[in-house]
Structures are given as structure tokens and as C-alpha cells.
Amino acid sequence: MFIPFSTRSISPPSLAHLAPSRSTVSVTGEVSPRKRISVKMALALRAAILGHVLVPVVVNISKLLTPSLWTRGTTAVRLIHRRSRRLNMVPICSLLISVALLLQSTSTFSSPDCNFPAVFNFGDSNSDTGGLSAIFGQFPPPNGQTFFHSPAGRHSDGRLLIDFIAEGLGLPYLSPFLDSMGTNFSYGANYATAGSTIRRQNTTIFQSGYSPVSLDVQFAQFSDFFKRSQIIRKKGDVFKSLFPENYKFSSALYTFDIGQNDLTAGYKLNMTTEQVKSYVPDLISQFTAVIKNVYGLGGRAFWIHNTGPVGCLPYIMDTRLITAAQVDQHGCAAPFNGVSQYFNQKLKEAVIQLRKELHSAAITYVDIYSVKYSLVAQAKKLGFGDPFLVCCGHGGKYNFNNARRCGSTKMVKGKEILIANSCKDPSSRISWDGIHFTEAANRWMYSQIADGAFSDPPTPLKMAC
Question: pTM for the whole thing?
């Protein structure tokens, strides 16, 4: 039996905290239009349900809500729909619950956090927390100086974006899967290595600098970890505490940040930007295959970064031939950024298709390109100064010399001297070594993506399940 809504029983939502400079009650004591929102919505909802017209309800409600409230509301709606599919909930029930959420007071309106118990990361140097250094030796000082006070397997003066993501979720920093010293995998594992690519490179790391641990290898490592970790846990004692419980694999967040090196690999072979574009579809195909494989092992929540503006890296600007006409308004090399944007376009299309195929997956596409480009564009306004001036380097227009990268030394009278040292204040720079970012830049980027402002759907990190 349908029970009609009573407009008197609905408490009007409090929106004061969304616009602190505007009171919901006027100086004359009259109730502002904002406090009438819930009554209007209730009447519109009642009429629509009685007339069996549900879609216009959501449309009408969107017109009544402020942009901020609508964003928060639709985030909850998406979460309800995702979870209703898993529970085989009748669609109309799911929609009614969603609309009810939109009608609630914003002071109490929030979707539950996912409480991810673990994170499994796949990527390259943008998120490598020690994988490559576990194979080929630790990165030299001054890497790690700001936060860890010594080299910590990261190409930065301190923490990376993945470190801030772990912090934001209340989890410890991820242990590199390849590191056998002092590692704890009970909260997940990091399979990223500096120089990793989506597809295998036909060179050695000594020839090209690219890691042998491509994305398919990272998945092979994860697959092995997935199977063997439960066997090892059964041994008890210390083994039980160092590996994740089985439920964590299906409840974990799976993060991906890879693809940049696949693009620069083409440039190293003197390919044109059009030639690099030609193999992007193959990159995306291999990328999506890994997503599907992780899903096949139970992974359900995916947080996927697109690739950054390669044309804004001092490394590219210093080593590639770039004409004045190819430099954009913020000083970046437009043709190289164009290839990154093409990669991102194809990746986003693939994510949309994955959502259709992987019905129980929650896939969040994060536009890290726009975040990084915005950082470059606003560098001086944000207190970073010249966005292309490298902190840890030696010589050249950008304090970058590809032959003498951060940490490089030379022998002087039988003594090893550090010549590519850190600047006095890394927090005043965006670029750490011409390729990677400073901790300060990584922290700023995290602040931009954590609330879902650059995500599709606009889902906050903690609610991406």
C-alpha cells in the first residue's frame, strides 16, 4: 500500500555549511528558498511516483539542488546502484532508495566509506615504493631526504601520490612485492617498478632504462601472491600476520598508474608523435586485459589514473626537438601532450566498456592529466615558482642533464663528489629530478583527487567501491 508523503513530516535540509556567507534565514525572519527545497522535492516526488514517472523525478530534483549538494547526492546514488546490482535488488527499489537519499538533510547526508582493508598497486616510477631498487640497488641520495631522511626506493625527495593515498585510507605505506627486507603485506602490496611499461620492451634496462617488470609481469606476481599467500598464512606464527586474510582481496582497492613510459619509449626510438599514437590501441588492449584478470580473481574496486602531460616534463623538453610554435601558453610541448591526451581518451573509452562487461566492478577513472597540467599552469600562484626548474639536477636550462641525473657523482682527486644535488627547498619546486615530482607536488595532487573532483564518476577515494 502506498502511503502519501506528508509535507509537514519532512525536515528541511540544512545547507548553511555549504554556503557560510549566506544565511538560510533572512534578516526579516522569512525562510529563504533553500529551506523550501525539501517540501518542493517531496511534492514533486509524490506526484511523479503516483504517475509512474520516475526518471523526471531525478531531473527535477537536480534543478532544485545546489551543485555541491547534487554532486554529493549523485555520488551516493551511484553507490546505491552499484551495490543493488550485487544484491539483485529490484531496479525501482534501488531508485526509490536513491531518491530518498537525495531528500535527506545534507548535515547527515553521506555515503558510507568503503573502509578498504588493503591496496594493491600496479604501475611505474610514479608509484614505485621500492620495487626496482630491490632488484638493482637503492636509488642514490638525496632521494628520500625530506620525509624518509635517506633513500627509500622512491624517485622523489619524499612521499609519492600512492603514499598519500595509503595515508588517506588509514593504511600503512605499501611494501614493494619484490622487496624481501622488512616487508609486511597484510595491508596489500605494490607491484609497480620504476621504468615499467604496459607492454614488454624489446630491450634491457641497461640499454633503455625500462624495467623488465611490465604490467603483465606485475599481474603474474599478483596472481601468484593471491594463491600462495593463503597457503603461507596457514603456517601460522609470524607468517599469518604478514599476509592478508582472504577477504581482503575482494574488498581491497586496486590502483593503476601506468602508461607514461610506453609513450616515451617511442620517442627514444625517434618515432614521431603520430607513430606513437598508432600503437596506443594495443597498449589499451593489454591494459584492459589485466583489469579483467584482476576482476577474475575477485577484485572489484578499481582506481585508475590516466597518464600525465608528458610534454610538461623537463626531461622531454630538454631531450626532444621542440620548436617555438609547438610550445603552449604554459610552456609545455603541445605535440607530446597531444599524444598523452589521445592515450587518455582511449583509456576512458575502454573504462566505459569495462563497466558494461564487469557488472560487479566499481571502476573510477581519475584524470591525473588535468591535475598535473593545472599544477604547472598555477605553479607560481601556488608558491612553486618556475614549474620547469628541476630541484635535484645539474646544469642545463632546467637544471637537468640527462647524462647527470639526480644523485650523480664524479671522482675528484680520488674522492667521490655529489654533483647533482638537491635544491635548498624542495617544497618550492614541482619537479624533483626532471621526470618525477617533489613530495610537496604529490601532496597537492592528492588534495585535488581525494574528494573525487577529477574522477569519473565523481566519487571520493574513500567511497570508490
Answer: 0.80
